[in-house]
Amino acid sequence: VSTLAESGLRKLNHMTASNRLQRMFNSMRDKVVIVDNKGKIIDCNKPESEEWNLSPWEFLGKYYYEVLSGEQYAVVEQAAERLRNREILEPFDFMTNYGGDTKWYSTQVTRVENSRFNEPDYFVVALHDISERKKAENQIVYLSYRDKLTGVYNRRYYEEEIKNLDCEQNLPISIIIGDVKGLKLENDALGHDKGG
Description:
Layout: H1 2-27, E1 31-36, E2 41-44, H2 64-67, H3 70-84, E3 92-98, E4 101-114, E5 119-129, H4 131-144, H5 155-165, H6 183-190, H7 192-195
Antiparallel strand pairs: 1-2, 1-5, 3-4, 4-5
């Protein structure tokens, strides 16, 4: 009787641990996708979340090349190949675009080995949404090349363009810089907030 009770208790503990792991998996902030060694998507957390842009039946059980665009597939395939070759893979940025909604993810792919055969059993793909960070970075780049007040390209932009244009096939080249209605004088006298 005691072995039967112990067996039942072990099963209950295993079910409780499994349930606890599943709850932890589903409550993670980052998206996590588990892909087998053949490329089939076998699990993911929060599959019905709006942020996935897909319903679970659209990708669970399918191969990632059936779900991803050609460019996305190439990035993931290159990462998987590097992991198959036991290379260390740093996180990389990955863009998705479904229905006009662009999302950026910092992506980490990890190889989980089958200890008996010393080959990948599956891959865990963790996706951290960095869309807001990318928007901020793009805004910073935009502002670094534009005048804050007018939105016109600034001196830094022109200096970069001169470097790009300064090649033999573009010669001779001329750039004319002028003073617009005493704007420089007004800037010098009143400051950029008043002059432009």
